[in-house]
Write a structure and sequence with these properties.
- By secondary structure, the protein is of the alpha/beta class.
- It folds into two domains: about 1-155 and about 300-340, Isopropylmalate Dehydrogenase (3-Layer(aba) Sandwich); about 160-295, 3-Layer(aba) Sandwich (Isopropylmalate Dehydrogenase).
- About 40% of the residues lie in helices and about 15% in strands.
- It is built from 13 helices and twelve strands.
- The protein has helices at about 20-30, 30-35, 45-55, 65-75, 100-115, 125-130, 140-150, 180-185, 185-205, 230-245, 260-265, 275-285, 320-335; strands at about 10, 40-45, 60-65, 75-80, 120, 160-165, 170, 210-215, 250-255, 270, 290-295, 300-305.
- A twelve-stranded mixed beta sheet has the order 3-4-2-1-5-12-11-6-7-10-8-9, with helices on both faces.
- Helix 5 (about 100-115) crosses helix 7.
- The radius of gyration is 20 Å and the shape is globular.
- Bound molecules: 1,4-dihydronicotinamide adenine dinucleotide and the ligand NCC(=O)COP(=O)(O)O.
- 1,4-dihydronicotinamide adenine dinucleotide binds near residues 19, 125 and 312.
- It is an enzyme of class 1 (oxidoreductase).
Length: about 350
């Protein structure tokens, strides 16, 4: 039986035309069966109500602030109202909703940093919709780090972790075009990513001495330089530095052979060089139950591993499993030592 924080989780609305409303409603309906930690929805109650009607679900909604949310949660889905100012059809994203989507994220961070909610759980955003509205960050991960940097006055580097029952995987470079990866990949970036990972796996995840398997960038980790020099010139020196600090990092490993069952038993986290090198195995091995966690922040942030799935929004087929896993993981790790190093 999990124990729940006395504070609610702050759950952002995400893109209101996506499946965020569907999976939020579905998760709340299963709160008793799954003994879910209480959450406070930050978004427009009218959008939730319209989606419940469309899906044929009976979900009472109640306006609540963080202090009231836990008491409300058993009987109604608590909502901290953020007006969308526009009506929304499932599956039809609109740039005009971006303001509310971003406000929900900002409020969740502010509430969590001031101790009024226990953690931030984000519903998926459509990055291109936000870009069209002038949003200057590649995704949540970078935006959350910027909010934390501004709030603390200290530079904060975020690390994206995909955490599932079969695999934890981290992309060192995150939301950048593949052609820019070799230029962006530096030994310093790998070292700092691994330091944050090692710290947070100990403090948040209770792993006493995390084993970090570091992937190479090139096929066969460069094949002694014949298939690319980055593995020997960038990745290997980073691993040497980490090992000298006492961090159990090893590699560079050929990425094609580090994700099969037996290989995964040898490490606690795979450190990958670019987005798809980490997220393809993570989603292939656990699309329904993996969680996107941002390490390095002074608060906990989790998210389902999937996106807005506009094609199935409002159709009653979106699975809430990854959101449920994100809510549970946020509750579990928010009780642990903070991420500040
Ligand atoms: N954390 C976040 O905010 C994330 C946002 N995105 C954004 O989502 C948008 C759409 O991205 P896609 O690449 O299409 O990925 P997607 O995850 O939205 O959809 C990929 C496929 O999986 C299915 N799917 C996704 N979630 C599902 C669920 N809960 N239940 C059943 N089926 C599900 C979809 O129907 C689709 O066939 C993009 O704008 C992307 O930037 C993508 C990943 C994470
Ligand atoms: N593919 C993962 C993803 O896009 C999630 O990014 P973020 O919005 O959590 O930064």
């Amino acid at each position: 039986m999990p124990s729940h924080s006395a504070l609610p989780l702050a759950l952002t609305q995400g893109d209101p035309a996506g499946i965020g409303p569907d999976i939020t409603l579905a998760a709340w309906l299963r709160r008793g069966e799954l003994d879910l930690p209480p959450f406070l929805f930050l978004g427009d109650a009218r959008i939730l109500a319209a989606r419940a009607l469309q899906l044929g679900l009976t979900v009472p909604l109640q306006a609540a602030d963080p202090a009231a949310a836990c008491d409300v949660f058993q009987d109604a889905l608590p909502v901290l109202q953020i007006d969308a100012g526009i009506s929304v059809n499932a599956g039809e994203p609109q740039v005009a909703t971006a303001k509310g989507t971003i406000t929900a994220i900002e409020m969740a961070v502010s509430l969590s940093m001031s101790g009024r909610t226990s953690a931030v759980v984000t519903n998926p955003i459509a990055k291109s919709v936000l870009y069209d509205a002038g949003f200057g960050f590649p995704g949540h991960t970078e935006f959350l780090a910027d909010l934390a940097t501004r709030a603390t006055g200290k530079p904060i580097m975020p690390v994206m972790l995909l955490a599932g029952p079969k695999l934890r995987a981290i992309p060192v470079t995150i939301h950048i075009p593949l052609k820019d990866v070799p230029q962006a990949l530096t030994s310093d970036l790998i070292v700092e990513t691994c330091r944050i990972t090692d710290h947070d796996l100990r403090s948040r995840f209770g792993i006493a001495k995390p084993r970090l398997a570091v992937a190479g960038l090139n096929p066969h980790a460069g094949e002694n330089g014949a298939l690319g020099k980055e593995d020997d010139e960038i990745v290997r020196p980073a691993i040497d530095t980490l090992r000298a600090e006492g961090i159990d990092a090893f590699g560079p490993l050929p990425a094609d052979t580090m994700f099969h069952d037996e290989a995964r038993r040898r490490y606690d986290v795979a450190i990958c060089m670019y987005h798809d090198q980490a997220l393809i195995p993570a989603k292939a091995l656990g699309f329904d139950d993996s969680v996107n966690v941002t390490l390095g922040l002074p608060f906990v942030r989790t998210s389902p591993d999937h996106g807005t799935a506009f094609g199935i929004a409002g159709k009653g087929i979106a699975k809430e499993d990854s959101l449920v896993a994100a809510l549970r993981l946020a509750n579990e790790i928010s009780g642990k030592t903070g991420s500040n190093r």
